[in-house]
Amino acid sequence: MKIITAIQEMHDYISRLKRRGHAIGFVPTMGALHAGHMSLFAAAAAGNEKVVASIFVNPAQFAAGEDFEKYPRDIKKDLKMLKESKNVHCVFTPDAKDIYPESYATYVELAGEMPKIMEGITRPTHFKGVTTIIAKLLNIVKPGMIYLGQKDLQQAVILKKMIKDLDYPAQAVICPVIREKDGLAMSSRNVYLTPEQRNSAPVLYKSLQMAQSMIELGERDAEVLVKEIKRKLKDENVEIDYVEVVDPDTLAKKERISDSTAIVAVIYVGKIRLIDNVVIELKEK
Asked: In this structure, which CATH number among 3.30.420.40, 3.40.570.10, 3.40.50.620, 3.30.70.1050 belongs to the domain 2-175?
């Protein structure tokens, strides 16, 4: 497994792979790797001859007061996991000063409502940072396919839109949420949870499962589902940020459940912010 830190060296490496005709799959990460990331690397390896991973904690997507400095970092552990997986051929670990030099002044930002709703309400600059770093990484790695996790559904949908709008020759693949045995969506930030908070955290997915069961039993009113999810969450004494029922392809808010529907919910367990979602494919009889 090759480890590259310099942008020019990465360009040269990718050029060699391209000349040899290799299909390249790319998985961007911020490190603190877990089984969810491993599933993305496995998916990339199944569909491509060469897999490139990036590990970069992107300062541009953290607002003042967020956890950039405290974000979990363990590059030695990450590299060990990647080597043992045998699914990744190259890891790109650039320095922030090379990605964003002092003279840096260019940002990529999606217009319209997508980046303003849900996460965009409490984190208004977040997606500008995400789209910018992914645009830069796509220019550096030049993959045929990029693999994204469904857990951050809004982010994945926004990135798919950016890739399409800017005519990147890359296909975005959204891979399923990977969960702990009790249903908690795997996340690098889960390490922040105290034992007591960890016991409370699975209520997020349980509330989404409850809503899914209600839909299977015939409920179609989005407002009813949101109220029931919030009721279950309040019973666990967690703080609710938002619960939304949206179209999983456009993020447009839905009043009625029909066809494909996503239910997205975010809570605070103590000071730890957890996000999760389920996507429901409705098959009317």
From this structure: 3.40.50.620
Q: Give the model confidence (pLDDT) of 89-148 as tens digits.
A: 999 999 999 999 999 999 999 999 999 999 999 999 999 999 999 999 999 999 999 999
Residue 167 contacts by C-beta under 8 Å, 6 or more apart in sequence? Answer: none
**Of 11, 22, 37, 89, which is the active-site residue?**
37
The CATH superfamily of 188-278 is: Pantoate-beta-alanine ligase, C-terminal domain (3.30.1300.10)
Please state whether beta strands 145-149 and 24-29 pair in parallel, antiparallel, or not at all (unpaired): parallel
In tens, the pLDDT along 205-263 reads 999 999 999 999 999 999 999 999 999 999 888 999 999 999 999 999 999 998 999 99
Distance CA 88, CA 215 (A): 40
φ, ψ of residue 10 in degrees (nearest 5):
-65, -45
Give the C-alpha separation, 60 to 71, whole Å.
Answer: 13
Name the average pLDDT for the chain. 96
pLDDT band for 43, please (50, 70, 90 cuts): very high
Cα–Cα distance, 121 to 242 (Å, whole number) = 10
Active site residue 37: yes
**Residue 261 exposed, middle or buried by CB count within 10 Å (0-12, 13-18, 19+):** buried
Closest to 229 in 3D by CA, of 264, 198, 196, 200: 264
Tell me if 200 sits within 8 A of 252, measured CB to CB.
Answer: no
